[in-house]
């Protein structure tokens, strides 16, 4: 659903943090961050609501902070979705009629068929046209003005669990907010971290979050595939906690401060003093920490590789982002396992972004979501190619809630 005014908010609901960006769009459709709310997350696991009350408090505290800074009242939010059973489907929609001139109405009609096809356990949140065909003509780039009777569209649909989405929507609306729509985490991160050339040539974005690692493949400028695996930074933290006999809180601090995937000879001589769960002080080396972290990182990347091989995407390059991408040397480990050129991706610097959040990989999804909403609803030249149709998601959400509550 299109924003009601020039100010909107995006909400990145992760397992460890909730980020709210209050965004204002100027007359040229350029987004500017006017408020940031960054709070610890409770009641959320892999993007799904596991405790409505706790999740609601986390969401409200993040939004309240963004409102205070921006001096704006936030009434409508767009949510970044990770986990929640994110899947990709390639489908074909078709419309038959008498010979006539193809209009925008015909294009909307054929694209809206996607939402009608997903009415069971999953719901489509992205509806990306890959190719149009009209009668005997294939791979048409511009339909309007052409005449024909049989219109077909090849579509990439990204779906999530219907019940997970309903729970998110209920968490939002129960706090007197309106949910404008959802954005898949890998879609948003790809927009924020990739160059136009990377999206054109075939690049995989890997967003390594706390409980989930999201993957998105871009080719010829389009979002062609989405996937996720239930492993992330929290699993690395647990390994550090177990391996060093420290609390989860201390393990997270050790991972963030000294985390590395590379073993260097000098690391054996670099002592780090820690306090174990019994309150006793002891020394470990950076090499000790790396020897715990690296196997888990390799395991996660092996899962990613198996998913990439399964779908046979022509990946020429890989961009890693998200909180775990800050682990020292992770791009070298990824390059070795995936056998691709790999770089760590940081989000584009949106106008007005707070200095402490500029270039932070953990902000990629929030920044990309803001870019997508601004491009979709505020830039007319992008309307024909965007994957959202104003009002369609709202209608589907209303239908789902009616069915669930019945």
From TrEMBL:
A GO cellular component entry from the record: cytoplasmic side of plasma membrane
Coiled coil: none
Purpose: Cell division protein that is involved in the assembly of the Z ring. May serve as a membrane anchor for the Z ring.
Protein name (record): Cell division protein FtsA
Organism: Anaplasma phagocytophilum str. NCH-1
Topology relative to the membrane: Peripheral membrane protein
Gene: ftsA
UniProt KW keywords: Cell cycle, Cell division, Cell membrane, Membrane
InterPro entries named among the record's database cross-references: ATPase_NBD (IPR043129), Cell_div_FtsA (IPR020823), FtsA/MreB (IPR050696), SHS2_FtsA (IPR003494)
Subcellular location: Cell membrane
């Amino acid at each position: 659903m299109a924003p009601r005014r020039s100010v909107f908010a995006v909400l990145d609901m992760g397992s460890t943090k909730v980020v709210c960006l209050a965004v204002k769009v100027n007359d040229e459709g350029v987004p500017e961050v006017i408020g940031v709310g960054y709070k610890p997350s409770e009641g959320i696991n892999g993007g799904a609501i596991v405790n409505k009350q706790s999740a609601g408090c986390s969401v409200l505290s993040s939004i309240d902070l963004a409102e205070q800074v921006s001096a704006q009242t936030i009434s409508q939010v767009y949510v970044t979705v990770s986990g929640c059973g994110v899947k990709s489907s390639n489908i074909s929609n078709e419309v038959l009629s008498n010979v006539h001139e193809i209009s925008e109405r015909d294009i909307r009609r054929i694209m809206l068929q996607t939402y009608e096809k997903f009415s069971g356990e999953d719901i489509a949140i992205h509806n990306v046209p890959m190719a149009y065909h009209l009668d005997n003509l294939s791979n048409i780039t511009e339909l309007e003005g052409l005449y024909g009777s049989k219109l077909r569209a090849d579509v990439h649909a990204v779906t999530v669990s219907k019940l997970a989405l309903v729970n998110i929507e209920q968490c939002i609306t129960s706090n007197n907010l309106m949910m404008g729509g959802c954005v898949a985490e890998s879609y948003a991160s790809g927009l924020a971290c990739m160059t136009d050339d990377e999206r054109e040539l075939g690049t995989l974005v890997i967003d390594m979050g706390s409980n989930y690692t999201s993957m998105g493949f871009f080719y010829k400028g389009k979002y062609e595939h989405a996937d996720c695996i239930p492993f992330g930074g929290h699993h690395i933290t647990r390994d550090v906690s177990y391996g060093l006999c420290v609390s989860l809180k201390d393990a997270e601090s050790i991972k963030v401060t000294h985390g590395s995937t590379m073993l260097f000879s000098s690391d054996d001589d670099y002592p780090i003093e820690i306090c174990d769960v019994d309150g006793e002080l002891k020394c470990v080396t950076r090499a000790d920490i790396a020897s715990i972290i690296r196997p888990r990182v390799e395991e996660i990347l092996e899962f990613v590789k198996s998913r990439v091989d399964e779908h046979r995407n022509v990946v020429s390059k890989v961009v890693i982002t998200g909180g775990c991408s800050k682990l020292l040397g992770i791009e070298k480990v990824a390059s070795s396992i995936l056998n691709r050129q790999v770089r760590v991706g940081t989000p584009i610097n949106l106008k007005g972004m707070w200095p402490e959040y500029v270039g932070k990989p953990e902000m990629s999804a929030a920044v990309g979501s803001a870019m997508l909403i601004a491009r979709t609803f505020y830039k007319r030249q992008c309307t024909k190619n965007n994957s959202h149709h104003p009002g369609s998601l709202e209608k589907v959400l209303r239908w789902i809630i009616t069915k669930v509550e019945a």
